[in-house]
Sequence to fold (305 residues):
Amino acid sequence: MRIVYLGTPDFAVEPLVKLLENNYNVVGVITNKDKPVGRKQVLTPPPVKQVALERGLQVFQYDKIRVEGVEDLKSLKPDLLITCAFGQILSKEIIDIAPLGVINIHASILPKYRGASPIHYAILNGETETGITIMKTDEGIDTGDIIYQEKLQILQNETCGSLFLRLSKLGAETLIKVLPSIIDKSAKFVKQDDEKATLTKIIRKEMAKIDWQNSAINIVNQVRAFNPAPVAFATYLDMPFKVFEAKVSELKGKAGTVLKADGELVIGCADKSVSLLKVQKAGGKPLEIKEFLRGNKFVVGEEFK
Fold:
């Protein structure tokens, strides 16, 4: 059994490692190209590439696999392709290369939350449950048949970063559980109900700007969903800062107005209010709110932008 693995970010590392630990024959790893990272724009390899090279695997990198990678993929003669957070849409030509086709590890209970950002959107929308879907890839965006699903409870106040880690581990475990039935062709395939489908968009920085006209719970969910990246942010007078943690407060007042700034920083919103718990000023480091308020003055009644 010759397997080619396609994945890019941290989320895709655990399933690759699990395949190797269970002695599956991974004959090649395909990932996106190295990208500049940070203020100094240091050219950095994707996490999957780093792990693959450490394990002595052959690595291929493409900006567009459907244009650049078809012949390389054919030369590997795979029986099965496995994708996980790969970030590129596969053409029918690629899907048809392996006799067993392509299976994907997706971080939601499909058909809900198809697309690029299912974990972010589950938290943004206040879901209490999510999970992993092992599915057969077709030419659409997460529209293929469902092979197996494993549910996971979203913890109260859980951030996107924490949920990413738990779902990555669950994805790896679920893949290993299901893979034998895919290989021996005993797996059952269930079509998705397209009428119940939702499609998530790519997360962009501007989506993390806090709108104080929103409800308190929606703002708190926004803070959770964008931690650790791109991080929710707001501006007080001329001071922009990031918000890493927040909770709903029962104080009421005008939306966007400072309601309390003594040992606690509470901002009014559409219904109740939001108490900011951990913030970071530009050029500073993340601080608990009491420490932050020692060096930054907020005036009750002043409005946020």
Summary: The chain has a mean pLDDT of 95.
